[in-house]
Structure formats: structure tokens, C-alpha cells
Amino acid sequence: MFDFLIVGAGFAGSVIAERLARVADKKVLIIDRRSHVGGNAYDHYNDDGLLVHRYGPHIFHTNSREVFEYLSQFTEWRQYQHRVLACVDGMLLPIPINLDTINKLYGLNLNSFEVEKFLESKAEKREHLRTSEDVVVSKVGRDLYEKFFRNYTRKQWGLDPSELDASVTARVPTRTNRDDRYFTDTYQAMPKHGFTRMFEQMLDHPNIKVMLNVDYREIERVIPHRELVFTGPVDEYFDFRFGKLPYRSLEFKHETLDREVQQAAPVVNYPNDFLYTRVTEFKYLTGQEHRKTSVVYEFPRAEGDPYYPVPRPENAELYQKYKALAAATKGVHFVGRLATYKYYNMDQVVAQALTTFKKITGERG
Q1: Domain ranges of the chain
Q2: Cβ atoms of residues 303 and 310 within 8 Å
Q3: For position 342, what pLDDT does the model report?
Q4: Going edge to edge, which strands form the sheet with 308-309?
């Protein structure tokens, strides 16, 4: 008899499994329908010996000391600050938009104060920021919106920014200085030996059993357990009772190239050209030295593995119905992106899992 059956071996499931096993001394079975642990953060060595992220780039960053210290138990870190360029008007320009982006794009020589005034002069004030278009246009104006955001968002979501919740583009800042880092969090680093190794360390405990290539429906009644932690899609758990929650998916095209370096930055965004949204070169992320290099192209898709909840009011409304069902389901804890229908960064999922663990053990008195 297991104390807990945990469905999904990504961040949410693995963190809770580790805490229940190590701190609460519970017997845990963690399962995943994929052939590996780590969820979408899974990385592996390809046929050429290059460390690649199978499901696109995963960059760790957080402002939470608690999360960083927790994960530091299972990995050493390699310092890494992420940078992204966008291919616009035939130029590679820093994104998020900063002082250099504006100066290079328009052939100007503004300083920080002048660029602030420049952006103010372009911004179109909106009384209510309801959509993603409102957010960007009210910050940087129509031209920058058209060049950097509109078509990228259309590709990514299959919808115009005017049809998407303000939260989508609110995540992307605009800077008046020359800081070209994609993130400005206190802790920015990559697991020194990769994410998969970190997960393996996390799950390496005598109280934890791991089963892969298995769907929980096949075993939930066969393997006795007292409680369930579910990190899969919440609508799937309830057999799509109220209908399917909409997601965007991604298709990845991996390529190994017979040269040491391919592009000028770890990630290059293509808002207006090509069918893919961005290209990642993994050696920047991993720090690996190798005579070849590996890149991945990302193609947004309407169907496939669920990646991004589609942020529209009707979808939020539909999720509320599932949330109410979940809250009324005794002995089942819903944790993570898919189970709570919310786009979380990795550190946010870890924080949510740590909080859920405390709640579970608190309930036990």
C-alpha cells in the first residue's frame, strides 16, 4: 500500500514526491505516461553527444530564495543570464525592447531619458487594458507593436493580440536602459549537469518508486494508495465533463549542425518571417564544449501535447467549473500548470508544490 500515488513526474509531482518521502516518511509511487522523468524540462544527450532540451528551452530563473535553495540540494549550478534577439526588418535586435533596440531600429542615438520621451510620444493611451494589444500599444505605440509583437502572438496563439487577455504580453517588459538580459531575477542559473540529472537526484529515495510509460487510469484501481496527487490536465481527470479546456501546443524540429556556433544569441525570435516562432541553440544554455552544435525550431500548433492555457475569459470561466469539482474531490490534490490551468514558470510550480506539501502534511495534523 502506497501512501500517495503521484500522477506526473515533472516539477510539481517530483517536488511533492521528494518532500513526502524525505520529510514526511511516506511511501510514494510516482508515474508518468512518458518514458522519462522531468516533464517538459527533460533534457538528454542526442546521437552526437550534445545535451538538448527535447521540449524546447527551459531557462531557470527565480526571485525566491526558498525555491533556489530547495533545488540546490539536487544540483550544482552553472551561472547563466539569458539573452534573446528578434529578427526585425532584417536586423537582429535585443528583446525585451531596450535603448539599443530603439537606436538600432530607427538609426537614432538617444540616451535613457530621451528614449523614455520617445516611447511616451509613440504610446497610445488606453483607458482600460483589456487585451494584449492594449498593453503593448499603450506602452510602446503601434509601430513597435506591429514589428515585434503582433505577428509573433498570432503565430504563437493562432489569435490576434486583440483577442487575447492582457496577461500574455504583460509578461514582456520594455526597458529604457541597455540591459539586454531576458530576465532580471535575483537567481539565474542552469543545472550544471542538466535538468534530468536534477530530477533523478530528487527522486532517488527508498520511499519513492517510479513507473514510466503508464497511464494512471491503468493502475489507479490496481495499485492501492491512500491519496492521489494529480498534475495532469484537470479536465481530463474529470473525463471532460464540461468540455475540453483549450491549449496551444508546440512542434519541435531538432537539428545538429557541423559547426561550433550557429547563431548570435541563445534564442532568436522570428516575429514576422517563417512559420516557426524562435530558434534555440542549446550550447549557450548548457555551456557544453563540442565541435558540433544543436538547434531547435519551434512551430506553434493547435493540437498536440498541452503547453499553454489559452487566456480568454470564456476559458477562465470553464476552468472555474473544474476548479470547483477539484475542490470537492476528497483525497485528491491538484498541482501544477495543467491541473490548475495556468501558465507558470518552473520556479512558480516548485513554489506551488512546496506549498501544497505543507498543506497536505498540515492537514494530517
Answers
A1: 2-37+203-246+310-363, 84-170
A2: no
A3: 95
A4: 91-95, 84-88, 267-269, 278-281, 293-301, 247-257, 308-309
At 90, which amino acid appears? G
Alpha carbon of residue 260 to chain centroid? 27
d(CA 57, CA 43): 9
CA distance 288 to 296: 16
The answer to whether 225 touches 29, Cβ cutoff 8 Å, is: yes
Confidence at 363, pLDDT banded by 50, 70, 90: low
HEC string for 284-324: HHHCCCCCCEEEEEEEEECCCCCCEECCCHHHHHHHHHHHH
Distance (Å, rounded) from C-alpha 161 to C-alpha 327? Answer: 32
Residue 225, pLDDT score? 96
Q: Cell for 37?
A: 522523468
pLDDT of residue 364 exceeding 60:
no
Residue 127's pLDDT is what?
85
Pick the CATH number of 2-37+203-246+310-363 from 3.40.50.720, 3.40.50.1010, 1.10.620.20, 3.30.40.10: 3.40.50.720
Residue-averaged pLDDT of the chain: 96
pLDDT digits (tens, 9 = 90+) for 269-328: 999 999 999 999 999 999 999 999 999 999 999 999 999 999 899 999 999 999 999 999
Q: What is the dihedral of CA 106, 112, 113, 117, to 10 degrees?
A: 40
Owner of C-alpha cell 501558465: 343
Question: How far, CA to CA in Å, does 168 sit from each of 58, 161, 312, 352?
Answer: 18, 8, 10, 21
Per residue in 85-132, pLDDT (tens digit) is: 999 999 999 999 999 999 999 999 999 999 999 999 999 998 888 899
Reduced to 3 states (helix: H, G, I; strand: E, B; else coil), residue 123 is coil
- What is the predicted pLDDT for the residue at 171? 73
Reply yes or no: is the peptide bond before residue 96 cis, omega within 30 of 0. Answer: yes
